[in-house]
């Protein structure tokens, strides 16, 4: 397969458009007819039907307690004139993602099908069109028992229509490799694959490279133009700037294909210039040692469900950036292409992942990707690579996650096949996977990974490096700490399994000490990372809460495969049996560093203290409003990027503490609760570094509204329940009601409570530990006013 494992990755892409594409592409999202369960209505895409329903206790929490499965049909009229049809133009329908089992029809004739719900694909409508109105339809068959998390249902990503010239760059038809050189130079090679629907002719293909609006290089090729022809062009660039998370510099290559009738087809390939190297010493970006401070993310956007929203994801990525995160793992599927565009432009490195199962279902879902693998794996993987291989943010391909084949040599042909496809289609990037079977790395299986990815096995890093000193190693999935924002359980235990009750309120303590049996608190992972200077990075499970998988209240038998210790496995199995008899109400995860509504949990600041060490910060937990706990032990923990801190309760010092080796938080575990103020002063190298303060709040008195994130289409409004002094009441769960006037509508509301069964579309819900979020969509020009009220509280309004 390969003789050595030290890879330098040199590649591409950029900001607008979301991926390399024809500039003739236009949105085809508006005015579709949606039909399901005997009902019909008009809507715009993207659309997820599952999230439009109410939560149901009888549905599995594992997939969000929402009815995402079923059969549905989307249809729309496309008008094509006789002149359009005579012009030789092609009508190309691009669907970025449809969940799932998609078939595209034109005038009741099948055009194409693509079953994988996370794949992007194209339907050429041209041969099926007639003059006048044409009925375009997309049918979906989304089967139950096909996902381990909430997948959504519907055409949940964007749809595009391109009226393309007879001769043009093919679908995802450019492959651009940018190699940095010395003295701010770079060599750029672009392979251009053409699609032609005319007889071969001699013509010109011209590519111009832009830095903003300025053309910095041009290459023209005159050659015989024919269908499937690949033309290579090369450029030497000077005075370039490298792409990195700190400076995500982007360029654009515009390719013009001259048609025999004198017209031209234009194709845009945004790109970035950077070098990536994985070797025995770690991970290097642009020649400098770096570390992947990454998070795993599922594809849903909380209260919006699986629907792609640029604004929602800008908000999310901005929060992760603030935390110090520099990398995303698209667990466990190809992402929306727009997500990669945002990672290109905002500065995130990406592990682009293919699937979570191959050929063996076992505890995976029998209707999941295992049912598609034999017929579709090669097509799906090639489609993902061709679509995404120009993005500078994409630094590695992941061919799978926790697949059952890890320990069975008779099935290793599967990852070997996927590995070979990656290398054939893009030899510039490394291949990895997420591996949870501990013995697998001691076998030849490790060779199907350029960079070996461990899931929850930090104790194996050193042995792996000793065995294979030339093979890079990665924490592909780490920690899986669980918590509920603003919830604390007493007494505080250091036993990772004692941070939650088996019954109500079905919440997990936010002291960040708790995790399922296979997982750990962040501190445990970091102890091993600090002993492994060769480690290339980690991807935490997860950056943000998501719909489904509400562990530890998740009846998910597949988790048993994560246990190596038989005693722990037996305990987990018994707990699952008890839960299965009376399923908990939980419908979303507890794993997130940020909750489902987009509010940081305490853990956000723990990761910020490690990942953003030059940011002066300190964070105290828990809150300090504990009516009835007077005189009781209430431990205080402090997360800080400093090296030491002094804690004060009502002005009295409780001593200075300093981080020792393997310590990542400062703890005052004997603090006795008394109302008032807790303050911390942190220090670094003997100098004051940062401060934080928490105060005892009064009773709920008012509602406070403020702008959280203002996007182009969506606006997020932060809602706080405050006391008479304007301080948030951290235990408040008052029932809130929202109304709106002006050119806007309330799209969704959520407070981040993983047990709430109030539909996201409801405008009435309780706050969760003092907070709530309202998502408003602008529908026209003018002033929007959002109003909030609650019985017994002073109302509030905000002008947007």
What does this structure look like?
This protein has 800 residues and is mainly beta. Helices cover 12% and strands 36% of the residues. The chain is built from nine helices and 45 strands. The strands form ten sheets. The protein has an eight-stranded parallel beta barrel with strand order 23-24-25-26-27-28-29-30, surrounded by five helices. Strands 5-4-6-11-8-9 form a six-stranded antiparallel beta sheet. α7 (522-530) links the parallel β29 and β30 (537-541). It is globular. It starts with 6 loop residues before the first strand and ends with a strand.
Topology:
Blueprint: E1 7-11, E2 21-22, E3 25-27, E4 32-36, E5 39-43, E6 70-80, H1 82-86, E7 90-95, E8 102-106, E9 109-114, E10 121-124, E11 132-142, E12 159-164, E13 167-180, E14 186-196, E15 201-211, E16 214-225, E17 230-237, E18 251-258, E19 264-271, E20 274-279, E21 282-285, E22 288-290, E23 292-296, H2 310-323, E24 327-329, H3 337-346, E25 349-353, H4 373-388, E26 394-401, H5 413-425, E27 430-435, E28 452-455, H6 461-467, E29 473-479, H7 522-530, E30 537-541, H8 566-581, H9 602-611, E31 618-621, E32 636-640, E33 644-649, E34 652-658, E35 666-668, E36 677-684, E37 687-695, E38 702-710, E39 714-722, E40 735-741, E41 744-750, E42 764-766, E43 771-778, E44 785-789, E45 796-799
Helix pairs in contact: 2-3, 4-5
């Amino acid at each position: 397969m390969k003789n050595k494992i030290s890879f330098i990755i040199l590649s591409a892409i950029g900001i607008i458009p979301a991926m390399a594409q024809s500039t003739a592409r236009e949105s085809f999202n508006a005015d579709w007819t949606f039909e399901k369960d005997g009902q019909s209505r008009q809507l715009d895409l993207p659309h997820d039907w599952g999230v439009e329903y109410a939560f149901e206790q009888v549905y599995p929490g594992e997939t969000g307690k929402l009815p995402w499965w079923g059969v549905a049909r989307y249809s729309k009229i496309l008008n094509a004139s006789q002149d359009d049809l005579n012009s030789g133009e092609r009508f190309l329908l691009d669907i970025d993602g449809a969940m799932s089992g998609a078939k595209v029809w034109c005038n009741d004739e099948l055009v194409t099908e693509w079953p994988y719900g996370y794949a992007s694909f194209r339907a050429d409508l041209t041969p099926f069109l007639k003059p006048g109105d044409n009925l375009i339809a997309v049918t979906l068959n989304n089967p139950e028992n096909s996902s381990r998390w909430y997948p959504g249902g519907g055409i949940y990503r964007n749809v595009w229509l391109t009226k393309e010239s007879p001769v043009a760059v093919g679908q995802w038809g450019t492959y651009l490799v940018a190699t940095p050189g010395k003295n701010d130079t770079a060599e750029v090679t672009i392979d251009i694959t053409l699609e032609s629907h005319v007889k071969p002719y001699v013509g010109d293909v011209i590519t111009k490279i832009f830095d903003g609006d300025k053309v910095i290089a041009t290459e023209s090729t005159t050659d015989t133009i024919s269908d499937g022809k690949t033309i290579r062009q090369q450029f030497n660039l000077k005075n370039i700037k490298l792409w990195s998370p700190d400076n995500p510099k982007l360029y654009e290559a515009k390719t013009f294909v001259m048609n025999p009738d004198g017209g031209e087809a234009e194709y845009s390939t945004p790109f970035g210039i950077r070098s990536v190297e994985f070797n025995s010493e770690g991970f290097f970006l642009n020649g400098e040692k770096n570390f992947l401070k990454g998070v795993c993310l599922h594809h849903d956007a909380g209260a919006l469900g699986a629907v792609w929203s640029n604004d929602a994801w800008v908000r999310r990525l901005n929060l992760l950036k603030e935390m110090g995160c520099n990398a995303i793992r698209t667990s466990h599927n190809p992402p929306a292409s727009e997500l990669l565009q945002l990672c290109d432009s905002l500065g995130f490195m990406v592990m682009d992942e293919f699937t979570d199962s191959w050929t063996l279902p076992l505890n995976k879902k029998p209707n999941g990707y295992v049912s598609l693998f034999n017929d579709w794996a090669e097509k799906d993987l090639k489609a993902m690579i061709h679509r995404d291989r120009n993005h500078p943010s994409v630094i590695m391909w992941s061919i799978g996650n926790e697949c059952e084949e890890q320990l069975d040599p008779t099935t290793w042909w599967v990852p070997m096949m996927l590995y070979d496809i990656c290398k054939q289609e893009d030899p510039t990037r490394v291949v990895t996977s997420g591996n949870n079977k501990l013995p697998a790395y001691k076998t030849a299986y490790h060779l199907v990974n350029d960079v070996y990815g461990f899931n929850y096995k930090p104790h194996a890093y050193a042995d792996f490096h000793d065995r294979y000193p030339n093979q890079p190693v990665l924490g592909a999935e780490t920690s899986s700490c669980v918590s509920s924002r603003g919830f604390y359980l007493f007494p505080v235990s250091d036993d990772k399994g004692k941070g939650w009750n088996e019954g109500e309120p079905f919440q997990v303590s936010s002291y960040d000490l708790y995790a399922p049996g296979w997982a750990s608190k962040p501190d445990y992972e970091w102890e091993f990372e600090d002993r492994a200077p060769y480690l290339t990075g980690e991807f935490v499970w997860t950056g943000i809460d998501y719909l489904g998988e509400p562990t530890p209240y998740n009846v998910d038998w597949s988790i048993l495969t994560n246990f190596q210790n038989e005693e722990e496995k037996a305990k987990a199995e018994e707990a699952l049996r008890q839960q299965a008899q009376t399923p908990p109400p939980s419908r979303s995860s507890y794993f997130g560093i940020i909750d489902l509504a987009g509010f940081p949990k305490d853990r956000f600041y723990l990761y910020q203290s490690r990942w953003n060490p030059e940011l002066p910060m300190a964070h105290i937990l828990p809150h300090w409003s504990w009516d009835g706990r007077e005189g009781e032990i209430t431990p205080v923990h402090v997360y800080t990027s400093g090296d030491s801190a002094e804690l004060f309760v009502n002005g009295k010092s409780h001593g200075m503490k300093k981080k020792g080796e393997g310590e990542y938080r400062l703890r005052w575990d004997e603090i006795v609760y008394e109302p008032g103020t807790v303050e911390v002063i942190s220090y670094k190298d003997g100098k004051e570094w940062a401060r934080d303060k928490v105060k005892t709040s009064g009773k709920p008195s008012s509602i406070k509204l403020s702008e959280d994130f203002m996007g182009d289409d969506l606006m997020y409004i932060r809602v706080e329940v405050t006391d008479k002094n304007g301080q948030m009441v951290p235990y408040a769960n008052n029932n809130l009601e929202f109304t709106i006037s002006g050119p806007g509508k309330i799209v969704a509301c959520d407070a981040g409570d993983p047990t709430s069964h109030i539909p996201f579309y409801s405008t009435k819900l309780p706050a969760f530990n003092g907070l709530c979020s309202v998502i408003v969509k602008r529908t026209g020009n003018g002033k929007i006013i959002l109003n909030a009220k609650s019985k017994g509280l002073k109302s509030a309004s905000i002008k947007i």
